[in-house]
Amino acid sequence: RADRALVKVNCAAIPEDLIESELFGHEKGSFTGASRRQIGKFVAADGGTIFLDEIGDMSARTQAKVLRVLQDGEVEPVGAAAVHHVDVRVVAATHRDLEVEIAEGRFREDLFYRLNVLPIQTPALREHSEDVPVLVAHFVRRFARENNSRERTFTEEAMEALSAMPWRGNVRELKNSVDRLLILSPGGEIGREAVLSLGGADPQELPSAMLSVKTLKDFRERSERSFLVHKLEDLGWNVTKTAQAIETPRSNLYKKMDQYEIRRRRPGKAEEE
Fold first, then answer.
1. In the chain, what's the furthest Cα-to-Cα distance?
2. What's the pTM value of the predicted model, to 2 decimals?
């Protein structure tokens, strides 16, 4: 389907009363304001691919109609007496943990299993921080090109500080921060102090045990483990609530717990390090 249509839909950005019309189309006069016939996104993607972004924000009513398309290949436009048959590849994405959404009654389990044929977990930037220098170099080049200015450089210490930051907003947050540093920092080279002004931790405020590690990788792993244990203890070792609180899929939290050998402390015993 590479040479066929690719239709993109942001389910979270379309108002609830319009999403069915957007996805499945409508006939002229089928509702107030329907002054013309509209072809839906599924029909427009017939033979190609439709990308449903933020599908976890879709209402239960719309979920049921999407399920029908996936099961039977049938699209029923709003106000139409007949259905359209389509052959569409569906790619869906969401920032929500759909298994949690199912457990709490906000997402259909049967739709989840229809979609969950080839799942791809996209890791947060903080989980592959070795890519930060490459991304920073890309953003620096793009900023210079777009603003007709010379390329700036970051010191090694500045790059280490950027790599150690949590980046809750992932690549978008990193790009905005690099742009801000390039705009506000004087001179040709951007140092560690400028990066720490973004909100990073000053090493002087870190426990000495954290500073005794030899490599950035060791520091990152130890700090991440300490953070996860703290959050789990704070939430009574409820993995679902902890995953929601730190904004990561529950499956990823379990993976991290296995990786760092995190186990709930037994009463009267200290947790093994």
1. 72
2. 0.60
- Concatenate the DSSP letters of all residues of the chain into one string: -TTS-EEEEETTTS-HHHHHHHHHEE-TTSSTT--S-EE-HHHHTTTSEEEEETGGG--HHHHHHHHHHHHH-EE--BT-SS-EE---EEEEE-SS-HHHHHHTTSS-HHHHHHHTTS------GGGGGGGHHHHHHHHHHHHHHHHT-PPPEE-HHHHHHHHHS--TTHHHHHHHHHHHHHHH--SSEE-HHHHHTTTPPPGGGS-HHHHT-SSHHHHHHHHHHHHHHHHHHHTTT-HHHHHHHTT--HHHHHHHHHHTT--PPPTTSPPP-
The mean pLDDT value of the chain amounts to 84
Degrees, nearest 5: CA angle 225-132-214: 50
Integer Cα distance of 248 and 242 in angstroms = 9
For the segment 134-149, what is each residue's pLDDT rounded down to a tens digit? 999 999 999 999 888 8
Q: Distance between CA atoms of 25 and 10, rounded to whole angstroms?
A: 16
Residue 130: pLDDT over 60: yes
Instruction: State pLDDT tens for residues 12-21.
Output: 888 887 888 8
Buried b or exposed e, range 208-218, using 16+ CB within 10 angstroms: eeeeeeeeeee
**Tokens at residue 233, please?**
């203890």
Place of tokens 């790599």: 163
Report the distance separating Cα 239 and Cα 39, nearest Å.
44
